[in-house]
Amino acid sequence: MIVYLDTSTLLRVLLGQRPVLDGWGEWEGAYTSDLAGVEARRVIDRLRLDTTLDDDGVVTALEQLARIEASIGRIALTRVVLRRAALPMATAVQTLDALHLASALLFQERRGVPLVFATHDTQQAMAARALGFECIGL
């Protein structure tokens, strides 16, 4: 299975939240948008500022994020992705979620490889299913 990981799946691992995605790391291949790293780092910084994460927790989360990013493929936020994300979608989709969906759609179309869309967000999963993706993580 080749999986597209949205940011919610990464954050569960980084923050030690349960449940993590079943079969984490057991896929044939994994990809995410460059957006995921930005989103994850913003969450880590917010948690630092509200003192949910201490310095050690921040360093641990950032190191783990770097390891994850090094082990999976990343999809650039190109103009094509931005244009695709701006198109109408079948369900209500927030901006950052639209960027994830557009990244996954374009990757799938260009590579001719079916992706399984991984998310812990029910609204994101609904939008992904409406676009024809198999979803895992809920």
Structure explained in plain terms:
With 138 residues, the chain is α/β, with parallel strands linked by helices. It contains 6 helices and 5 strands, in the order E-H-E-H-H-E-H-H-E-H-E. A 5-stranded parallel beta sheet has the order 3-2-1-4-5, sandwiched between helices. The protein is globular and about 40 Å long.
- Counting H and I runs of at least 4 residues, what is the number of helices? 6
CATH superfamily annotation = 5'-nuclease
Strand fraction: 5-15%
Structural class: alpha/beta
What are the segments in which pLDDT stays under 50 over at least 5 consecutive residues?
A: none
Strand order of the largest sheet: 3-2-1-4-5
CATH class: Alpha Beta
The backbone outline, from C-alpha atoms, is globular
- Provide the CATH topology: Rossmann fold
> How many domains make up the 3D coordinates?
1
Order of helices and strands: EHEHHEHHEHE
Mind telling me the C-alpha Rg? Answer: 15 Å
Major sheet characteristics = 5 strands, parallel
Report mean pLDDT, rounded to a whole number.
Answer: 96
Number of strands: 5
* Residues in helix, %: 40-55%
Q: How do the strands and helices of this protein lay out in sequence?
A:
Blueprint: E1 2-5, H1 7-14, E2 29-33, H2 34-49, H3 55-71, E3 73-75, H4 79-86, H5 95-111, E4 116-118, H6 122-130, E5 134-136
Parallel strand pairs: 1-2, 1-4, 2-3, 4-5
